[in-house]
Design goal:
By secondary structure, the protein is an alpha+beta fold. It contains 2 helices and 8 strands, in the order H-H-E-E-E-E-E-E-E-E.
Amino acid sequence: MRLIALAVAGLVAAVSAPLAAQEVTGALVSGLWQLESGKVKTDGPRSVMIRSDSSASWGKETVRWRLKPGQIMIALGGEWETYKLKVKKDRLSLSGGDLAEAITLKRVGPSTPRPAGVPVPPDPDTERPSR
């Protein structure tokens, strides 16, 4: 019986280690990402800069982001939009939220600092937008 318990504990540890290693972190999503496949709205971003300071930018738009297991939340218009998130090497896949179909972005460069004078937008859960 003790041998079985040790075997099960070893199996749990072996399975848990790869799962923990797959956790997506801010450092893993930081960078310059370019749309590789999938369709976005006509005015949707084709290139996105994601920074570890919880900001992301495309065009003239700067938003706040937050990670949860298997998800990225983006604050748009004072509300969170939630997407399913998968990151594998230099590919980032998003689905759900306001997307009609899944999209894949390819990392094409490192992140750059947020321009001076461009604030991280407020957190809809804890901050009021400045007026």
